Amino acid sequence: MEKLKSEWFDWVKALLIAFGLFFVIRTFFFAPIVVDGPSMMPTLQDGDQMIVNKFIYQIQDPERFDIVVFHASDRKDFIKRIVGLPGENVAVEDDQLYVDGEKVGESFLQERKEKMPSYQPLTGDFQLEDLPGGYKKIPENHVLVLGDNRNNSTDSRILGVVSMDKIVGKTSLIYWPLDRIQILHD
Question: Where is the Peptidase S26 domain (predicted)?
Answer without folding.
Answer: 9-176
